[in-house]
Amino acid sequence: MRAEGLRRSLLTGVAAAGLVAALAGCSGAAPTDVAVTPTATGFGGQVPVSGAQNGIETVDGRTALDDVLAAMRSEPVVVTGTVTELVPDPAAAPGAGDTVPGRTVRIDWRGTPTDSRLQLTVGDVTVDARRRADDVWVTGNAAFVARSGLAQAARGRVCVAATSAAIRDLAPFTEPDDLLRSLLGTGSDVTLHPGAVTGSGSASRVQIVVADGSSPVGTLEVSAVGAPVPYAFRASDSTGTVDLTFTDWGKAQELGEPDRVVSPC
Fold first, then answer.
1. Measured distance CA(243)–CA(234) in Å, rounded
2. What is the pTM of this model?
3. Prior bond of 228 cis (ω within 30°)
4. To which H or E segment does residue 146 belong?
5. Cα torsion 253, 257, 260, 262: sign
6. Across-strand partners of 108?
7. Helices (H), 44-117
8. Half-sphere exposure of 125 toward its Cβ, with a 13 Å CA cutoff?
9. Which CB contacts under 8 angstroms, 24+ apart, belong to 162-170?
10. What three-state secondary structure class fits 47?
11. At a CB cut-off of 8 Å and minimum separation 6, what does 256 contact?
């Protein structure tokens, strides 16, 4: 498998966050194996579209991604999962190509871009960010405090602007569409191939195959009816694994008021 194109895309989501980049020495737990077995490859085939379907399976991959990203910003959603980097095994023989889990990000994001709660774990760092409009109430453990400089964040929530350095350092995990865009990247080596429609009614789905050259390395499962919102993204190659699920589209999330506020806005 040609891995360089996906290397750039899978690891963009990990390395783009300044918080995560600071954790190069940390190791996460071994990720759950991600089986990449597309059931509908498509690879450019055109499929008839019924009036109930949104036609996402008939467009080219880059257009499909643009449509998915646009649809993601319109409704509340819950995003959970992991992004894990694979690094060379220091115990393996030189040139063996063996890998072990490196940095792992665990994410639980729910809400809308302007009313959300993000719970993020990266190695020994944990952070909880509650956003409303342009304000974010953030708290975390001692490791987060050491890296963010927010001295009171270990005792409770500190209010900061959504544009502050502390929040920018959490990108692209602060908004689901930014995370998906970052993981898939824009490199020409990584291509997307919408497949055939499976299922029926509101459960109709299209598997968009993510390929590195001619090798499928993952799938993005997207609704084939209504807005083409994603339901799952799973990918795996020699550089890392991604396992994300998107649930509760359109369901309002009860996020509550920011609790344990020690530094108000």
1. 5
2. 0.80
3. no
4. helix 142-148
5. positive
6. 80, 119
7. 61-72
8. 27
9. 162/131, 162/133, 162/134, 162/135, 162/136, 163/134, 164/136, 166/138, 167/129, 167/136, 167/138, 168/18, 169/17, 169/18, 169/19, 170/17, 170/19, 170/118, 170/120, 170/127, 170/129
10. coil
11. none
List pLDDT tens digits, range 117-138: 999 998 889 999 999 999 999 9
Cβ distance 64 to 194 under 8 Å? yes
Task: Return the closest-CA partner of residue 244 out of 90, 59, 78, 55.
Answer: 78
Q: Cα dist. 119→78, 91, 164 in Å?
A: 11, 33, 18
The residue type of 52 is: A
8 Å CB contact between 131 and 114: yes
DSSP designation for 251: P
Is the predicted pLDDT of residue 165 greater than 50, yes or no? yes
- Per the CB < 8 A criterion, the answer to whether 215 and 61 are in contact is no
Alpha-carbon distance 206 to 80, whole Å?
A: 20
Whether 10 contacts 242, CB under 8 Å:
yes
Q: Please classify residue 93 by burial: count the beta carbons closer than 10 Å to its beta carbon, then call 0-12 exposed, 13-18 middle and 19+ buried.
A: exposed
pLDDT in tens, 83-96: 888 777 677 777 77
Query: What is the DSSP code string of 205-222?
Result: EEEEEEEETTEEEEEEEE
